[in-house]
Amino acid sequence: MPMVPASRRMACAETCTSAASVTRGECKTLGGKLIGVSLGWGNDIRPESARIDGDFFATTDDAASRALCVLQDAIVAALADPHADAVEALQARVLPAWREFAIGQVLVGVAPEAVVIAAARAYLAMTPGGEMTPSDEMAPSGATASDDAMTPSGETADSAQPLPQLLSQPQLGQPCDSCDDHTGRMAVPTPLQSRWQESPWGVVTDPEPLAPQRQMDLDATLAQRVADGELPPFVRFWRWGGKAIVLGAYQSEQAQVNVQAAQCEGFHIVRRCTGGGTMVVEPADTITYSLYAPLSFVRGLDPLHAYALCDEWLVHALRDLGVHASHEPVNDIASPAGKIGGGASRRFLARSGTAGGGCFLHHVTLAYDMDAAMMVRVLRVSAEKLRGKHVASAAKRVDPLRHQLAAAGNPMTCAEATMALREHALALLPGAHVIAAHQIYGATIEENVCTKPDTA
């Protein structure tokens, strides 16, 4: 992707922060992720800034920053003429920019048309009276506006925004040739693919519970150390030291979290280094691990297949425990009973002067149990996202591991389930061996989080 000046990237990151009012639109790519566009308005009838957020993924952080900056500039330029047709102008600017800058190779799980639709919804939310303009007949089938779209007054909008029929709901490509039948779930190779044989795998468990922000810092730091060749490939089972709401790298906190309610419930709000959606972590009901693989492990694979590869051992382990689990693109671990958890990934490049070959970080969080009422209190779940999944609420999408293990006749506590997965990792991964904590963490865990990793 062509370079965008650093000063311009910084300006892009600060868009909408000083606008007099903000309107927001969302669109979920079928089979993919949600994207949101917020437009900042001054005293003019044209938006002066645009900001993109969402639960999509990206190959690297720097490439994502450039891609989002390009798209945000294209949106503002498209809407500069208040007399032009907004949708046509957005298509004329956004779609060519997507192709020219190869943004589809950087942002994962979102179609370019979703950017157009989200931006159009945000633009059409600004009318002379600050009201939404209802026109259900003109909304694309199955793609009405998010109930969480914000009007200039900050109130929740509950009417659809008008969009021409020429915009159908965007979707990712058809299920790949490695998917099971027509379910969209990825087939699981038996045994594991030969790529797993490229190096022996270490397995380690945090020696002590770590505060949520410390977990975020440590995860990125360890991935960078593997990227630099300082550590071998390994799997780390986390120990959470507090309740957390973990945002994906590109999500909007305001759009995703009821901050006051979350703080009252004792949650720390943190942001991880990977894309994807929001996780709610209660230490006694959550299983999290990270896979720190050499970058060569996923060489030649597109992101969807790379994520599926990283989940192979977990799917085997869950099936051995009686749960009929599968990897469900883009990033879910699910069974016919419902979603169990999800993963997120990011590529780390070796830093200059090091001998490493890069790292592919893939971390997964499984819901052992879930307090649905609490999730409703602390999260703002987009109606647009739920429509794309054809369910009425986020809680109904999830069937926790505790329930699925019990249904399989194999009830376990969260600690027992974590230990069982750890033992399966040791049994399934080629050359797997236990790593002493001091080999990974040093004399103290603090030693490993004193430097910031590259944002390549």
TrEMBL record:
Q: Where is this region: Disordered?
A: 132-187
Residue ranges occupied by any BPL/LPL catalytic domain in the UniProt entry: 229-413
Name the Gene Ontology molecular function terms of this record: ligase activity
Spell out the Low complexity composition-biased ranges.
161-175
Q: Which UniProt keywords apply?
A: Ligase
Task: Report which superkingdom the organism of origin falls in.
Answer: Bacteria
Q: Which PANTHER family match?
A: OCTANOYL-[GCVH]:PROTEIN N-OCTANOYLTRANSFERASE, OCTANOYLTRANSFERASE LIPM-RELATED
Q: What is this protein called?
A: Ligase
